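Weekly puzzle thread! Below is a chain. First person to post its structure in token form gets bragging rights.
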Amino acid sequence: MDINKTLAQEFSLRQEQVDNTVNLIDEGATIPFIARYRKEVTGSLDDQILRELSDRLTYLRNLEKRKEEVRTAITEQEKMTPEIENAIAAAVTLVEVEDIYRPFKPKRRTRASIAREKGLEPLAVILMAQENSTDPEAEAAAFVSEEKEVPDAAAAIQGAMDIIAEDISDDAELRKKLRAAANDKGTITSKASDAEAESVYTNYYEYSEAVSSVANHRVLALDRGEKEGFLKVSIVLDESVATDIIFSKYIKANNACGELVRAAAEDGYKRLIFPSIEREIRSEMTANAAEESIKVFASNLRQLLLQPPLKNSVILGLDPGYRTGCKVAVIDATGKVLDTNVVYCTPGPKTNIALSKKIIKELIEKHNVTTISIGNGTASRETEQFAAEVISEIPQKVSYIVVSEAGASVYSASKLAAEEFPDYDVSLRSAVSIARRLQDPLAELVKIEPKAIGVGQYQHDMPQARMSDALSGVVEDCVNSVGVDLNTASHSLLSYVAGINSAVAKNIVAYREENGRFTDRKELMKVPKLGKKAFEQCAGFLRVRDGKNPLDNTAVHPESYKAAEALINESGFTLADVAGGGISVSDSVNINSVSEKLGIGVPTLTDIIGELKKPGRDLRDELPPPLLRSGDVMEIKDLKPGMELVGTVRNIIDFGAFVDIGVHEDGLVHISQICSRYIKHPLEAVKVGEIVKVRVLEVDVKRNRIALTMRLDDEAEKKEQQKKEQKKQNKPRREKREKKGFDASKISNSAFRIKQK
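Winning reply:
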């Protein structure tokens, strides 16, 4: 197999693009570096395509490796034939290779192997020939042997049939056809292990759906329900469909031998083939569902990490709690901890609302706090109510926001947290994290294992190694796309920079602490274990603010400094102009001619121009800021169908999006309610962190469930149509009648409106 050619076809890329990309990967170049600084040779492939290509490259190389192992194993048995060699060469999946190897694979003792030990294989060959002249009983009589434990002809025939059944089950081509039939015409069904048992899987107690159409989230739900003992899951295929395929190949005559082969084939299908194929199909369904779930998780994580930071704000973090109180931490605009405390503002044995308010008000006044960040865990709603009351009682303009505290406890108990805050207990570290993840989500969340951040579905059921690799890749891409301040970044953040591992990251921090701040990128070469290759990979992603060279505060790579300086001079500017806030390259400049003159590619030149216009820019600044609150707090019981609100998308799953609308429970926007047009997945229309307008459809207080819709225009059109129909009826009394029901125009979304003081 020409792997590069296969990749080019699968990804619809030019052969040159694939060849160059594979060469860069093999040379040890990182995906972020390739995506950003090797656009000319890759054809400007982005980091997501590059990672998919890299993953597929690994799979195909493993496939070729396994093919060679199978060839060697069969050849050593002296059983290799041109047909087998061609089949191995034509195989495109690992499953196909294993099917080919199945007959030659060492097996445990089976009914067929025992029959072969008894010398019954020649009888099996005779039966398989299905000659009209053959008398099975007469032929079998010759194989009767007390010594070999074949007491009679019937036992001999049964042994021969066991051999036939296994041989048929080992037919790679047949298994491929049957697997395709099961995928195309099979159904997946589930029944309750105990119909009376209460569980979240009641929808699957009597369930059946085509294998070809079952949604990924249902596959994962079935797997989990089965694992937890609530469901019995199986694949069902009409037996006649399968036997028709088998008989068409193996039944040659309608005679006594043919009937025995038919019976053996049916036995082989029921006992050997179908159970195996069922396991394979379910495994494949699970793997595909897991892969898609990981992609959703990765997309959600990407959006969460790239949430805009709340800059130039002094933030007070609140980690809610009942018995142990609410932990408090105040951080300045750089993330430095200014103050900590504990208040008892929620129901509990030590509750003191008055004292708690006094402490918070004093902290706000003392440190000029502008924003309160509240964790969304236990006691979050009560803490939010408390914060809103405090805000309403003070003259300062203060807003608050509820942030996800997923992973905060993991971080607070980690070795990293202990190193950062050796004098703080675990709970106070969590409060600091809650404050910092509002101030700079990316810098704080990289300290937490990605799968602990909690933006996905069934993450604990995923193949952990694969998920960790995928999510780490997302973190790496996000960190490098934003860039990292070399003089302030923690070693955990630095470790995600292209070309820098954990050990080198710690060395950078140690060098910085010993020698003071970096003044230029070249100084990195003095850091222990950071060689030329690592420097090439990481330099462009590290920022040196207020350094010797203004280009060090941009994404321009040092290898392109000469070209950048030439462009600056050509445009009539100096490096000082860049440091002063950027330069503007005229739109009339002929990019192609300048590119040729400077000796760099057009994509690189375009990137340089963008950086020179906005040196030190943060791409997150171009995104909508987080939705802050400072008004009344609603509880779920206060919600009514028809209410229109503004919320923040917290999580996206296969069948919808969860939106924070200011109550403790997030509301679900089902995929059918996201937009009017048909979409295959919510990610086509919405993303994590996006601020959206929603309407309440249904509220289930008992089950803490809120159903929302984003299809507001649909309702507006419906109302307009109703007005038109009403006019047609020409009934004046109804025109004069006061309009009843919900009027969206009168709604004040007080939970999200920032009050000016």
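Puzzle host: Confirmed. Bonus trivia for everyone else. The first helix runs from residue 3 to 10.
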